[in-house]
């Protein structure tokens, strides 16, 4: 079981209070989006869960285990960024397997995990290619593949589709939804795109200046916004 519980999380950058007491209870296997305007703290919250930011107060619990004091590599979390930097000099197979070999995973197991991720993402044909021989969507799949091979308890995705053109975004959105169904793993997705959040998520966290304005299903946000901020953000054109 790997739900995520966040209690009283506070984060400052110097004197700037960026996260102001975040409490969240995300269920095992849920797809949750962090949605809100630029600068509201979405990425900082995600990075705090991953351990890439040191938090000032509060704690993060993953699958019942407090993880706030653990280094990122020990958290059993995989993160996919917007700038999914692949290793340019390695082929796709190597890009997928490299992290596992560093962690001392046996070769046979590495191969099994890479082949399995490649099958799920339909990139088996591309394993021998270098990143520069791939399209944007294919590169994004490889980046997601690098997360899948680690078999994490939690996936964190930071605007992973924002560099793709509009048509491809829609395709990849469907693929992500399918991937979530197939893996059944908890996923947290950061976006400022309300359509993306509403179509992909079981529940959405709307953030307003470092606070949770509302945490609910897309329908709840749409039909029962808790305050004016949520109502105007959800209803506004992109
Ligand atoms: P979002 O992802 O919602 O756009 P961020 O979490 O990136 O928001 O940023 C929230 C606030 O924290 C912004 O005001 C941003 O300028 C500030 N911030 C983010 N990272 C840093 C940092 N490393 N140093 C100083 N301020 C930062």
Automatic annotation (TrEMBL):
- Keyword Nucleotide-binding in record: yes
Annotated GO molecular function terms are: ABC-type maltose transporter activity; ATP binding; ATP hydrolysis activity
**How is this protein situated with respect to the membrane?**
Peripheral membrane protein
**Cellular component terms, GO, for this chain's entry?**
ATP-binding cassette (ABC) transporter complex, substrate-binding subunit-containing; maltose transport complex
Subcellular location(s): the record lists:
Cell inner membrane
The keyword ATP-binding appears for this protein: yes
> Which keywords belong to this entry?
ATP-binding, Nucleotide-binding, Transport
Q: Which residues form the ABC transporter domain?
A: 4-234
Protein family membership: Belongs to the ABC transporter superfamily.
Q: What is this protein called?
A: Fe(3+)-transporting ATPase
First and last residue shown, out of the full length, are 1 to 238 of 388
